[in-house]
């Protein structure tokens, strides 16, 4: 008799537990940031906050002007722009090319590049608080997707998760989080494909963009900015990317994107719209229905079955086909801007402020939970993560390594054939010097070119990661050096292994090993110099122009063409810092010391010591020359570190705007500037 109630209690408890679990699972579903189930968390493990905190970004009378040296305004990039982006909404900033979309997006993300010539004023608040005091996390998906090309999608995301999530997360929880992101962003089918680049085919452009979004979502941002997310994508991929952004908005994120001229199906996904022309707002409000009514009331009715995006683009673009058309369109745009301004003035900022106040209240009630506190690991932890990435990038880049290997062997075969089996005659002295100089130049040039070819792009990735505070520079540079060392050493070693026996250089195993050691040290120094060039040059093309030019100077003062004793006083420091000179000096000492030559005349060179005297390398040793080479390598590494540290992105400060007199916009003037 007592059994039945007990069974009933157990059944009820079981059903209740299952229901609760089901409800909790349902609640978790649909939230991007919620992935770790409570039962999987172990003691001390930290979960990512589950809900997306609603965030409103509001900006008021934002002005951005460019001034000349005398302080006169030469260009107005943004003119008294006001608006707001709301939680759960997808806001699109549209306008013709050069209308200020990217500038506005940068301002809203707090990432407008600092410049002494630019002045930025206005107000920017997040949930009613000044931007600078906000603790809400913002994500910015840039127009250019930059990744390590040899890593797979999953590896890229996993590494970003390891760098950005608190260290207290267990590996299993992190993997689940990454897997969830892969599902959400539609990246499961390409999860194990390498990202790729122009040389190696990898994932598609749309997948790259979604991977960029996924990487930004790791830190659970409340606000997502995306700069022209559909640029360069075909219609299908553009649609998928925009659908992803729309879903994120539906999940509670505040999503703001700039877009040029979307298709109708993409336009229909927008909740809110800002139309910009010459940096001024032509319209700001709901994208569907209201926008069309607004313009229809002003006498610009969008014809039926016409894509509103195309209609608006035509409406706010200047027509340059003739001077009359140009004048007429400028006039029309100026009127549209005035019409919007007067409408805004009538409405006042009432709505904006009331929302901001409520949002501030919700912040004060302790709802600010969306910030993931990144528990950055120490040096060793960062080093091992970055080492793994650098190792994969270096060793998997088969095409580059194959080309470098082929070039090393081919040049060794060519030089080997030219300097084939050198004897000990007097003329062989010049041949040996020529060969050693050529070996020094060839090694340095191939190491330099390889580095300057890839580093400027990698630098941009590192700078973005640095801006997020993912890791420090020192572990990054050391990990890169360690990971690349074996591969970088392999090519000069292969060169030496072929050219040395072919040319009959000083035939002893010890000398051969020393030869290989010298060219390897030189390759490291040239690579380090390439890093510095890559850190200075703004683009790969600039780096490719600068690197070899600089190296040419070091070649001229490399000890072969100009004897260091004859170097003009003003240039005497150059041979001392020339990596070619120290390599050539070390190679010459290694080759000539103790070598006897066939001497028929009294003025003939008897031995290698006499050759070294003529080259002014007499009192030196291989050890000394190699240590100078390594010092040069260290100098270039240090300089790269300093430059990367100094080049950290700096952003323009938003100054409070002074109360302005009624805003007078001069579209005609502005466009002539
Ligand atoms: N720091 C600056 N100094 C001078 N002019 C600038 C600066 N930054 C941007 N501009 C100019 O301001 C205008 C707006 O640039 P912005 O990149 O914001 O336009 P956009 O609407 O995003 O254009 P697109 O669709 O072509 O990317 C352009 O004419 C640009 O050349």
Automatic annotation (TrEMBL):
SUPFAM superfamilies xref list: P-loop containing nucleoside triphosphate hydrolases
Pfam families referenced in this protein's UniProt entry, alphabetically: ABC2_membrane, ABC2_membrane_7, ABC_tran
Cellular component per GO, a single term: membrane
Transmembrane parts of this sequence: 6-23, 405-423, 435-455, 476-500, 512-536, 543-562
Subcellular location as annotated: Membrane
The keyword Nucleotide-binding is annotated on this UniProt entry: yes
UniProt xrefs under PROSITE patterns: ABC_TRANSPORTER_1, ABC_TRANSPORTER_2
Residues annotated as domain ABC transporter: 60-303
Entry keywords, A to Z: ATP-binding, Membrane, Nucleotide-binding, Transmembrane, Transmembrane helix, Transport
Top-level taxon of origin: Eukaryota
Molecular function (Gene Ontology), one example: ABC-type transporter activity
Membrane topology: Multi-pass membrane protein
PANTHER family recorded: ABC TRANSPORTER G FAMILY, ABC TRANSPORTER G FAMILY MEMBER 28
Protein name: ABC transporter domain-containing protein
Species name: Ceratodon purpureus
């Amino acid at each position: 008799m007592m059994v039945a109630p007990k069974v009933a209690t157990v059944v009820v408890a079981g059903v209740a537990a299952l229901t609760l679990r089901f409800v909790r699972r349902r609640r978790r579903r649909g939230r991007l940031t919620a992935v770790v189930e409570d039962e999987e968390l172990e003691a001390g493990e930290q979960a990512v906050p589950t809900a997306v905190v609603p965030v409103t970004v509001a900006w008021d009378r934002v002005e951005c002007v460019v001034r000349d040296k005398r302080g006169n305004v030469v260009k107005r990039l943004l003119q008294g722009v006001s608006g707001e982006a709301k939680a759960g909404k997808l806001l699109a900033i549209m306008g013709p090319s050069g209308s200020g979309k990217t500038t506005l997006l940068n301002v809203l993300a707090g990432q407008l590049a600092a410049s002494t010539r630019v002045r930025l004023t206005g107000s920017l608040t997040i949930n009613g608080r000044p931007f600078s005091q906000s603790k809400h996390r913002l994500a910015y998906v840039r127009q250019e997707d930059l990744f390590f090309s040899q890593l797979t999608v999953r590896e890229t995301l996993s590494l970003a998760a390891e760098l950005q999530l608190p260290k207290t997360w267990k590996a299993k929880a992190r993997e689940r989080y990454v897997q969830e992101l892969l599902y959400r962003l539609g990246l499961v089918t390409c999860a194990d494909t390498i990202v790729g680049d122009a040389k190696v085919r990898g994932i598609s452009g749309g997948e790259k963009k979604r991977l960029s979004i996924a990487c930004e979502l790791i830190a659970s941002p409340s606000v997502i900015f995306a700069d022209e997310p559909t640029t360069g994508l075909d219609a299908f991929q553009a649609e998928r990317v925009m659908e992803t952004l729309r879903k994120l908005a539906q999940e509670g994120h505040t999503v703001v994107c700039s877009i040029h001229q979307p298709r109708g199906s993409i336009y229909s996904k927008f909740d809110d719209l800002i139309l910009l022309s010459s940096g001024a707002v032509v319209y700001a409000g709901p994208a569907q229905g209201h926008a069309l009514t607004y313009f229809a009331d002003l006498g610009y009715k969008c014809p039926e079955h016409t894509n509103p995006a195309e209609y608006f683009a035509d409406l706010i673009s200047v027509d340059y086909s003739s001077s009359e058309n140009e004048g007429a369109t400028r006039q029309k745009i100026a009127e549209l801007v005035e019409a919007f301004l007067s409408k805004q003035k009538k409405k006042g900022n009432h709505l904006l402020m009331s929302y901001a106040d409520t949002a501030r209240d919700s912040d004060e009630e302790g709802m600010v939970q969306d910030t993931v506190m990144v528990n950055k690991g120490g040096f060793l932890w960062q080093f091992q993560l970055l080492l793994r990435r650098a190792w994969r990038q270096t060793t998997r880049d088969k095409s580059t390594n194959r080309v470098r290997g082929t070039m090393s062997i081919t040049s060794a075969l060519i030089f080997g054939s030219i300097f084939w089996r050198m004897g000990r005659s007097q003329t062989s002295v010049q041949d040996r010097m020529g060969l050693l100089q050529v070996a020094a130049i060839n090694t340095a040039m191939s190491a330099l070119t390889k580095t300057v070819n890839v580093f400027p792009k990698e630098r941009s990735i590192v700078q973005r990661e640095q801006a997020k505070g993912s890791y420090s520079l020192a572990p990054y540079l050391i990990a890169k050096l360690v990971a690349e060392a074996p591969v970088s050493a392999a090519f000069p070693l292969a060169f030496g292994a072929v050219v040395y026996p072919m040319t009959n250089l000083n035939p002893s195993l010890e000398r051969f090993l020393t030869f290989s050691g010298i060219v390897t040290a030189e390759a490291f120094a040239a690579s380090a110099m390439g890093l510095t060039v890559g850190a200075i040059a703004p683009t790969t093309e600039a780096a490719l122009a600068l690197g070899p030019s600089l190296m040419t100077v070091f070649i001229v003062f490399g000890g072969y063409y100009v004897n260091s004793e004859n170097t003009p006083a003003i240039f005497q420091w150059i041979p001392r810092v020339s990596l070619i000179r120290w390599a050539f000096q070390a190679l010459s000492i290694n080759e000539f010391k103790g070598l006897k030559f066939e001497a028929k005349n009294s003025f003939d060179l008897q031995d290698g010591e006499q050759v070294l005297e003529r080259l002014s390398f007499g009192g030196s040793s291989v050890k000394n020359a190699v240590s100078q080479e390594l010092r040069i390598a260290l100098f270039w590494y240090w300089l790269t570190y300093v430059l990367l540290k100094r080049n950290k992105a700096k952003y323009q400060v938003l100054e409070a705007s002074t109360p302005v007199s009624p805003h007078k916009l001069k579209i005609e003037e502005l466009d002539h500037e």
